[in-house]
Structure formats: C-alpha cells, structure tokens
Design brief:
binds zinc ion; mainly alpha; 365 residues; elongated
Length: 365
C-alpha cells in the first residue's frame, strides 16, 4: 500500500473536493478568484429588475453560502491571510449598497446580521470563516480518529501524527475565535464545544454500531447575553429568531444531530449575540431612534419572512418600491433629503421617513 500511494509534497497547489488544500497563500488565491466570480454574477442578476428576487439570490447564491465549503476547509488559513476574505466581503457590501440606497455605515453593519437580530440574514465571510472551520473540525474529530487508527493498523503512519495535527488545528481556530469574544462569550464557547465534542463522538458511535439515532436536542450555546445587556424575554426571542431562520433553501434545520451546520450556527450565534449586544449599547447612546427601531425588530413574534419568501410562480410578493422602502426603513437608510413636508399633516419629514410610522391626524369631529 505504501509503495502504491502517491504522496504530495506539502505546500503544493492542489484541489480536493473543490477546496484548495496546498496551504495558506493558495487558499487565499482561490478566495480572491471566487470574489471575482461573485462580482461578475452580482452584475448579471441586476437583469432581474426585482429587488426582492435579487436580495434572495444574493443571500442564497452569492453570499457566504457560495464559499461556505471553502471556509469549512480552510477557514483558519483564510483568516490569517485575509485579503481574499476582505475582497469577498467588499463585493457583498457593494451588492447591499446597490440594493438599499441611502445606507450609512451603521445600516451596512446591521445588514450583515441575522434576521432575528434585525439584519438581512447576510454574513461576512471574514467572520464566518472561523465558526465554519472549527465546526467542521469538531464534527470530523471522531471519524478522523477511526481513520487514523486504521491507518496505523495498516502500517502507514502512527495515529498520533494525524490526531496531533487535528488538535493543533482546533486549538489555532479556537484561539483566533476567542480573540473576538469577551469573558462571558468565552464561557459559552467552552461549554458548547465540550458538549458538542462528546455528542459528536456518541453520534458517530451510534452510526458505526447501527444503533437508533439519538433524538434528543443537540447541544446549544447558552443564552450568554440574557442576564446583563438585554431583558430575558428579548434575548430568547432573538436567539429563537436566529435559530429558526431557515437555511438557504428555505428549510428548517433539524437540531437532533451534531451536524457541521448545527455547530457552525451555534458558534456564529455566540459571536453574533455578543456583537449585537455591543451594537445595541452603542446605538442606545448615539442614536435613540435606531435603538427603538431595533428593539421593535427584535421583539417577540416579529416575522422576518417577507425578506426572503418568494412566490414560486410569480417571483416577488412585494412591489419593488415597497420592498426597497421596507428594507431602507429596517436598516435606517436615508430615504428623502429631509426638506419636504408631510402631505397628511404638514409636519416636516425626517430623512429616514420615521414620521410615516407615527403620522396620524386627529379624528374629525
Ligand atoms: Zn404626517
């Protein structure tokens, strides 16, 4: 077997299952190529002339979902040499700015949040890379151990050689991820990863032994933000909103197996919950109106489906102008120059058209 096997030298450009495996600079180069492809495609989908269809296509085909497999394979390396990821995110941001005119920096930041956090459900590749890579490493762990033991049994190489590389990869991804977390979120990360590793091992054991699959809830990240910065009810509503968000195909995700998608989502939740809390703290002092709008958006029972549900026969469900205006209002974009008067009541309109939500004439007597 040893003589029949072909061993590549390390750091040689080579594609395996669509992902570059030759090392950091090759992986980064592949990401830059993908960014160019996405840029070209983003120009093409403008032919649809329908913002809701464009938004849904951008999210499903041209966003992080387009490169998620690369992030799972090379997330850590891509973050270390991040030119490819930054280029990709810039292309995404261009699409958002085109779809939502009048967006400021704060609105753009909000657009890249989960829908349950008041965003458009888009993701920055730079921030998704580590959860994606770490999730795939954690879920692959038990299978890799079996493979390594079989390799050793076949006399090819010691199992420890493979497993020590794997542990090193997990450690590096985890350290980089922790740099973005505060103390509270780190505790949530530790607890979640511990539970996920145990459950991944027991799930794999069941599969190997033909046992009935475990139907209990897979481990979830704690509601790390509930106690301090948000009321408990709101924190639950937000996490529910994020976790109930459908995947790119509009399907809800089963959470009874520790799949890579599940672990990636929970890790993303830990980061997003922390960053959302910081965002809310910031705007509560700087921008009271935006803060109130966000509280409403993140409230219990708020439906975000209008952002992505399309009619399979007729495409968009909302008229183009209505959709654009609704998204602009969601993200606090500037809609009018602010020097016009309301035709109903005669008051001055503000640039974000918040007045439209409150305008009411007194009842005629
Ligand atoms: Zn008015």
């Amino acid at each position: 077997m040893k003589s029949a096997a072909i061993m590549d030298e390390p750091n040689v450009a080579s594609i395996s299952l669509g992902a570059e495996v030759g090392g950091q600079s090759f992986a980064d180069g592949q990401m830059r190529e993908k960014s160019q492809v996405v840029e070209q495609m983003a120009r093409r989908i403008q032919c649809c002339q329908d913002p809701q269809v464009e938004l849904t296509l951008t999210r499903a085909c041209l966003g992080v979902s387009k490169v998620n497999h690369l992030l799972r394979a090379n997330g850590t390396e891509l973050v270390m040499e991040s030119t490819g990821l930054k280029k990709f995110d810039e292309v995404q941001a261009q699409s958002v700015r085109r779809l939502v005119p009048g967006l400021d920096a704060q609105g753009e930041e909000q657009a890249f949040r989960a829908m349950g956090f008041g965003g458009l459900g888009l993701r920055k590749a730079l921030y998704t890379a580590l959860p994606a890579h770490l999730a795939s490493l954690i879920v692959a762990g038990p299978k890799l151990l079996d493979l390594a033991e079989n390799l050793e049994h076949a006399g090819l190489l010691p199992a420890e050689l493979v497993m020590s590389e794997h542990r090193k990869a997990i450690e590096t991804a985890r350290q980089l991820l922790e740099e973005r977390l505060d103390a509270q979120a780190k505790v949530a990360l530790d607890n979640f990863l511990e539970g996920a590793e145990v459950r991944a091992a027991s799930d794999w054991f069941d599969v190997k032994h033909g046992a009935a699959p475990d139907r209990t809830q897979a481990p979830r990240a704690e509601e790390s933000r509930s106690a301090t910065s948000q009321p408990r009810v709101l924190a639950q509503a937000i996490s529910g909103g994020l976790r109930d968000e459908p995947d790119e195909m509009g399907q809800s995700m089963a959470a009874t197996t520790v799949s890579t998608a599940h672990v990636q989502r929970e890790l993303t939740y830990i980061i997003e919950a922390k960053e959302h809390a910081e965002f809310m703290d910031r705007i509560s002092t700087d921008d009271d109106r935006a803060h109130r709008r966000m509280l409403e958006l993140c409230g219990v029972g708020v439906c975000h489906k209008w952002l992505w549900i399309l009619n399979p026969r007729r495409g968009s469900r909302l008229a183009s102008e209505d959709l654009t205006l609704a998204v602009q209002s969601r993200l606090g974009a500037t809609v009018s120059p602010g020097d016009e008067l309301c035709r109903q009541c005669g008051e001055a309109l503000d640039p974000r058209l918040s007045h439209a939500f409150f305008c009411a004439l007194s009842e005629p007597t």
